[in-house]
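Exam revision sheet. Question 4 asks you to relate a sequence to its structure. Input first:
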Amino acid sequence: GIVIAYEVAILAFVRGTPFTTGNNLVDATIIAVLLVPLCMVDDMSNLSKLSHLGLVILAFAMLVIAGYGVAGYDTNQADSNYVYDNPFHFLPPNGLTGVS
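Answer key, structure tokens:
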């Protein structure tokens, strides 16, 4: 049950990235091949050795997500009639009003 939940969540994240093959069946198979062996470990202490690597990968993933956000925000601002002479041009032109 939990393996399927993780696979569906990962598949949903992969769809919006350039790492997808475009075919859900192929993407799900690749994810299953990577995920299922980790779920079949008898002694979870064996996986603790990978904890440091997991934290490094998590930090890298956060940097990639932040990079996508910055790149997307700059693209959206370039499409509008926004003046860039403000040193805080990364903020919305009307301030933070309406930000949820």
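Marking note for examiners. Residues 51-79 form the longest helix (29 residues).
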